[in-house]
Amino acid sequence: MRKRTKARALDVTRCSLQRIAGAAQSDHCKFNSSYVISRQEVDQFKNEVQHHQHIDCDKESDDKDEDVDEMLASCLTWKSSAPDHKKTATDIYETTGIFASACHHGFIIKFGEMVRSGELVKYPHAIMNTMIDAYGKDIGMGYDVGCTFSGIVHKSPLLNQKAEEARMQFCVNSFHGYAHNRLCQVQHHPLYLPGFGLEDLKTMDELSKFLLNNYMQAIGIIKKYEDEVSSLASSLNIHEEDFERWIEEEC
């Protein structure tokens, strides 16, 4: 009885999600920017995880491979969790989020749309590829699961050689790093890596809060002074398109 009830509930949920997905119209506008990594650029790495998972176990491996496999075995048991109601987003929305990167000054470098998926490996692969193309060698990349990601890159047919030639260095951010075992920390925590200084690599977490706070502040300013600005513009015979024209003239 319980199995039937559960199956019936899943069927009802699936039907409801399908109705929701078809209830609205999608926005086909494209945001054209040099910051954006196209879906085509991202999808060239969509099979990289399969390459990693189907490594020939009978193949002789060097000491570096053994070290990487030991590191992966110690950290791959960690899994992110999300509420069940959030796991249905991929059934409803085409774009479920963005995967972004920023420098330690807080400036966005690149970002790509996550399409009907969660946080897949192809997204950081695409980010890393564009970072190497833009900045060349000796790049430090902080990622919540930078330890396991470094092992995946090491096994990648598309990026392994490129990453080695660029001397890419992977690490976890300081906050997540302390949740990893000691072996991982001494190899991937920024506290023990030369070149990272006091950087905690939490730029993206702080940047998201900064953007939200500034967005809410901007909305508040517009709401508070909208009537005054409209009245002043009317008295001076200034139209909305004049503001755009003035900016173009200054450029």
- In quaternary terms, these chains amount to single chain
Query: Compute the gyration radius: what is it?
Result: 24 Å
Order of helices and strands: HHHHHEEHEHHEHHHH
Count, helices = 12
Q: Determine the fraction of residues in helical runs and give it as a percent range.
A: 40-55%
Distance between the termini: 71 Å
Tell me, what's the shape? elongated
Tell me the structural class: mainly alpha
| Main beta-sheet strand count, sense and barrel state | 2 strands, antiparallel
Record the strand order, biggest sheet: 1-2
Low-pLDDT regions: 1-14, 51-62
- Strand content of the residues, in percent? 5-15%
Keyphrases for this structure?
mainly alpha; 12 helices; two-stranded parallel sheet; 4 strands; 53% helix; disordered N terminus; elongated; 251 residues
Explain this structure.
This protein has 251 residues and is mainly α. Helices cover 53% and strands 9% of the residues. It contains twelve helices and four strands. The chain is elongated and about 70 Å long. The N and C termini lie far apart (71 Å).
How is the topology of this model organized?
Layout lengths: L1 H20 L17 H5 L4 H6 L9 H13 L13 H4 L2 E8 L5 E8 L6 H14 L4 E3 L3 H9 L5 H6 L3 E3 L2 H4 L4 H7 L14 H33 L4 H11 L1
Parallel strand pairs: 3-4
Antiparallel strand pairs: 1-2
Helix pairs in contact: 4-7
